[in-house]
Design a protein that fits this description.
heterodimer; A: 291 residues; alpha+beta; 4-stranded antiparallel β-sheet; 10 helices; globular; B: 159 residues; 34% helix
Chain lengths: 291, 159
Amino acid sequence: MKPFEYHEPASIEAASEILARYGRDAAALAGGTALLVDIRHGELQPHHVVSLWKIPGLDGFRANGSFQIGALLTVNELGDALEHPSLEGLREAARRLGSWQIQNMATVGGNICKASPGADLVPPLLCLDAQLALQSATGRRDAPLDGFLTGPDQTALMPGELLVSIHVPLPPPRTGTAFMKIMRRQALDCSIVSVCARVTLDNDGVTCREARIGLAAVAPNPFRAKSAEAVLTGSRIDDRTIREAAHMARGEARPITDVRASAEYRRLLIAELVERAIRLAANRARKGTGG
Amino acid sequence: MASTMTVSLEVNGQTHSLDIEPQETLLHVLRERLGLTGTKANCEEGECGACTVLLNNRPVNSCLLLAARAQGFRIQTIEGLTSAGRHTALQAAFAQEGAIQCGYCTPGFLLAAAALLDVHPTPTEDEIVFALSGNICRCTGYQKILKAVTNTAIGVVPG
C-alpha cells in the first residue's frame, strides 16, 4: 500500500480541520473494509488517513423512544442491538452484510458514506426515514438520508464534515419491514439486487397507511421507489396492489449490466423481490412482531 | 514521506512495542515483523478469510485492519490457539475429519470456528455456516469442515 500519514484526532473539530485542510488528499477511516481496498487498488491515494476512533461518542446505540445509531457502531453491534420488531428489515440487512469478519469491522457510518450503489444498510434506513447528524468544526446540521447520496462514492458531506450519528424515528404501530437480497453466493459478494419494504397498516389491519420501498444495486445509489410507495399508500394490501407496486418499482430502477448480472435479469429480480418483501413486511405489520 | 510510528500490540498474550509505518496492516506486521506466519496473506481485500485473526475474541480480516488500529485489543493468531483445551479439540477434529488439505485456509477457519464456539458452544448448523461464510476453502468442499466443527461442539472425541 502507498504510504500515508496517519492522524488520530481526539475530537470532531480536530478531525474536521484535518479533513478540510487536506480535502481530497485525506480520507476518514472508520471500519476500513472499503477504504483499505480502495487504497490498495489505487482507486484512492490519500496522503492523509484520519482515524475517527479516538473521537469519543461516535459509537454506541441508544433506544430511547427513537433510535440513535453511532456512526462507528459496527454492523455486528447493530445486528445485536436491534430488538424492536419493526426494525427487522434493518437487522436482516446487518446480518447479511459481507461476512462475520466484515461485520465485526465495517461501521454503519462507513456503509452510508462509502455511497456504494449496493450499500446494504441504506435501503432499510431509507425505509425507516433515517436522519443524519452531520458535524464539522464550524457547525452541526441534520439531513435526511434520502437525498444524502449523490452518486457512486459521492455524498452531500461538505468539506470537513463528518457523519456523527444516524437517527431512526420510532416506527408507527402496525409497521413491518423486510429486507431481501440476491447474491451469486450467500456471503461476501456485492448484491445483484437488494430490496427493503416497509408497510404501516391502518387500524383495520388491511389498508396501507404508509409504505416505503428501498432498492439497492440497481441505480447509481440506493433509492426509494416512490411511485411504488404511492401505489401502496391508502390501498388495500392485496395481490393486485402488490403486483402493481412491484411493477412501478421495476420501472423506477436504472440497472446496469456488469460482472454479476445483466440489467434485464436485475429488472426481473426487482419485480419478484419487491413483491415478496411487501408481502413479508405486511405480514409482520399484521402480527405486530418481527417474525 | 510518511513517518514511522510506535505501536503497542498485544499478540497471544504478549505485548510488543514496534516501530512501523502507518500504512502497515496487522497482517503485514504479524507476518513480517513478528514472524507469525500462520496468518496467511491471500486476496488482501477481505474476501477469503485466510488472514483471519481474533480481536477481543471476534474474527476480523487482518488484511483490512491497520496495525495502528489494533492497539488496545487482545489479538489472537493461530499460534495462540493451540494451548487452550477446547481449541486443541477443534484442531484434532479438523484432522480427524480430513477438514484440511493444502492447509492454507485452515488457520482462518480454525479461528472463526473457535470464536463461534466461544459464543455458541452448541451452535446450530445455520450458525456454523454463517460463522464460516467469510472463509474460503478451495480443496475440501466445506462439508468436512462443517462436520469437524459440529463434532467439536457435541463432544465427539477423535480417536
